[in-house]
Design a protein that fits this description.
The complex is a heterodimer of chains A (400) and B (227). By secondary structure, chain A is α+β, with helices and mostly antiparallel strands. Chain A is 55% helix and 19% strand. By secondary structure, chain B is α/β, with parallel strands linked by helices. Chain B has seven helices and ten strands. Chain B is globular, with a radius of gyration of 18 Å. The two termini of chain B are 20 Å apart. Classes of the chains: A alpha+beta (400), B alpha/beta (227). Chains A and B meet through helix 1, helix 9, helix 10 and helix 12 of A and helix 2, strand 6 and helix 3 of B. Bound molecules: adenosine-5'-triphosphate and magnesium ion.
């Protein structure tokens, strides 16, 4: 029996047991679709996070007080324990390193902003003019500390704050009060929306000295540093660590995190999550495989007389085996194909529902889903096909 | 030409051995018309299955066209079944999913004959057995006589030298049965060996050679003098 005839004949069999075939195909398809959609979700989340991180700024190094136990761990893991404060002096020291292009000290707090008979609580960032380029923020109007001195009382308003307080667009040059001090509005940020859970539209930025006196502190929350060269980011990190240790009496009590390390960590965690979720989905394919086996065993039973007849008219055991094998192959193939299409459709719907989420299933996942479905189907048919091939012709023929 | 010597086939039923065939010696020349008769359980079907290579004897020798075939591999036996032997069964054994034409084409498909040749040969067979207008009907849409005609067309599509029919008229009424026998006899007229197992004395008597079986043994072996 030729391969074409085997495939053609078994295709006909699949078609003639319509409901049975449809149910198996659906079972396999759901498994494959689950793999595709879940990996699309996982990989989408991963890409989303990476994209958000990159938008914070490239070549970025962050100095935080306290010592991290392991390199590249979460910033949150070292919060809370601050043996020695970071100071403006530390920041200036880092700014003098040859590998550093610019730095921005950072303090964060909350204060009441009042102007034009309005009053509201805002998040206050204290920094210098470098914060804007380092964090990839943009000014819609005006400037920040570029013309005045570091000690002039200037304030930059987030887009939404500016719109709230000065709905007619006349923010620049207005006077506002922040925590009892008077500031001159020198700039308005471009609306950017949320990045990494931080909405730059609802913040205000003031010079670091004003922030420190406002919050009554001499320490810094973070120092943001931009390296000159992305390729020298590790050397920069080392130079920064050395310099910080020297100024801290030889104590290793600060942590320098590169953006790459944070990205790597997130990347690894999210990849692992995607893989785990995909594996769980793949298990449903094994279940589908068992279903295929069961259905094929029933088919062999139902068609025993037919198998006997085929043997009587000259089919070899191999012919019979291949016929059942091909039947399972068609079912798995149709299931895998339908599952892939369902998965793509599902991912598409996800992207429509959550436009920020790049929910594209990675190619490896789609291939793996299809491959596992085919393998499960083929493996599952070995036993039934073998059983059919071994049937005794006379006994099979006489079976009712 | 079929030559059986000392063919024995024993089935184990629990702890009891059933001698379905007990040292059967039998020779059948090419082109002969043989009927096999005997009471139920006398071993007629077992004999036919062994001649048709569906079953293997426990002992004894079987030569087909002077070639010993008891020791051939399963695949070689399948090939002989495909090319030299055609089976006709009491219960037709048509595949319900397939049309009449597709059922008839099955042996050609198994032999790997290309589709265009298949179509031609199947059409000829459909004409020969007056089934052209039923070519695309499934077995469930055919009468008993039509079903058996499809089965005979399938058994002969490879132009085998031997037709083995196990009670081919058992499920048919008398007149239709006689028509089916005529078709088989026509094939024999053209040189095919025809071996028919039957309970029907009248049908059995039409064969040129009548074999009577009992308890797994050939009891009588008579030839019609008229031919
Ligand atoms: N697979 C089997 N297992 C056990 N016993 C069997 C088997 N096949 C046949 N027999 C026994 O062998 C004997 C001969 O059976 P066989 O089918 O050849 O009889 P038969 O002459 O064709 O009878 P019938 O006219 O009823 O078809 C019977 O006693 C039967 O019970
Ligand atoms: Mg019988």
């Amino acid at each position: 029996m030729t391969l074409t005839d085997t495939l053609h004949t078994s295709f006909g069999t699949v078609l003639s047991y319509r409901i049975r075939s449809l149910l198996i195909i659906l079972a396999i398809a759901l498994g494959v679709a689950a793999v595709v959609i879940l990996t699309a979700l996982g990989d989408g989340a991963r890409n989303y996070v990476i994209q958000q991180f990159s938008s914070i700024g490239t070549n970025l190094l962050v100095v935080l007080p306290g010592r991290a136990e392991t390199a590249g761990s979460f910033p949150g893991a070292v919060l809370g324990q601050t043996p020695r404060d970071l100071t403006l002096k530390d920041a200036q020291l880092l700014g003098r390193l040859p590998q550093v292009r610019r730095y921005a000290p950072l303090n964060v707090g909350a204060a009441e902003l009042s102007a034009a008979n309005r009053l509201r609580e805002v998040t206050v960032l204290g920094s210098n003019a470098n914060l804007i380029p380092i964090r990839h923020m943009q000014l819609a109007q005006g400037s920040f500390l570029t013309h005045g001195s570091a000690y002039s009382a200037q304030i930059v308003l987030g887009a939404k704050i500016a719109a709230e307080f000065f709905p007619h667009g006349q923010a620049i040059g207005q006077r506002v009060r922040l925590g009892g001090n008077r500031f001159l509005v020198s700039g308005v940020l471009k609306a950017q929306g949320e990045t990494m859970g931080f909405n730059t539209d609802e913040i205000v930025i003031i010079p670091i000295d004003y922030a420190q006196s406002l919050f009554n502190t001499t320490s810094l929350f973070r120092i943001l540093v931009e390296a000159k060269n992305h390729s020298e980011i590790n050397a920069t990190k080392q130079a920064m660590q050395t310099s910080l240790r020297q100024s801290h009496d030889g104590e290793n009590d600060t942590t320098v995190i590169t953006q790459d390390a944070i990205l790597d960590t997130f990347d690894r965690i999210l990849r692992a999550m995607t893989l785990a979720v995909a594996s769980i989905a793949a298990i449903s394919l094994l279940v589908a495989g068992i279903l295929v086996m069961n259905v094929m065993l029933i088919a062999v039973n139902q068609r025993t007389a037919e198998i006997g007849l085929l043997k009587a008219i000259g089919a070899t055991s191999g012919d019979i085996r291949r016929l059942f094998f091909a039947e399972a192959l068609w079912l798995s193939f149709a299931g895998a194909l339908l599952g892939f299409l369902l998965g793509q459709a599902g991912s598409f719907l996800l992207r429509v529902a959550y436009p920020q989420l790049p929910a594209w299933a990675p190619v490896w996942a789609s291939l793996a889903g299809i491959l596992i479905a085919l393998t499960a189907g083929i493996l599952a048919s070995i036993l039934p096909a073998g059983k059919a091939a071994r049937l005794d012709a006379v006994q099979a023929l006489n079976k009712r | 030409m079929i030559r059986l010597t000392g063919i024995t086939r024993t089935f184990q039923m629990g702890d009891q051995a059933v001698h379905a065939l007990d040292a059967v010696d039998l020779s059948i020349e090419s082109g002969e018309y043989v009927s096999i008769m005997g009471p139920s359980g006398s071993g007629k079907s077992t004999l036919l299955n062994i001649i048709g290579l569906l079953d293997r004897p426990d002992s004894g020798d079987y030569a087909l066209d002077y070639r010993p075939i008891t020791d051939l591999s399963e695949t070689e036996q399948a090939q002989i079944r495909r090319e030299k032997i055609g089976f006709v069964f009491q219960s037709f054994h048509l595949i319900p999913r397939l049309t009449a034409a597709e059922n008839i084409a099955l042996p050609l498909v198994l032999s790997g004959i290309p589709p265009n040749q298949r179509r031609h040969r199947v059409n000829t067979a459909l004409q020969d057995f007056e089934l052209t207008h039923r070519a695309n009907h499934r077995p469930s849409e055919l009468s008993g006589g039509q079903r058996q005609r499809v089965a005979i067309a399938r058994a002969t599509i490879m132009q085998p030298g031997i037709i083995l029919a196990d009670e081919p008229t058992g499920n048919l009424d008398h007149q239709i049965g006689a028509e089916v026998m005529m078709l088989l006899e026509n094939l024999q007229d053209r040189g095919t060996t025809l071996i028919v197992v039957t309970h029907d004395r009248e049908l059995g008597a039409r064969a040129h050679r009548q074999i009577g079986m009992r308890d797994g043994k050939v009891l009588t072996d008579r030839r019609n003098d008229t031919d």
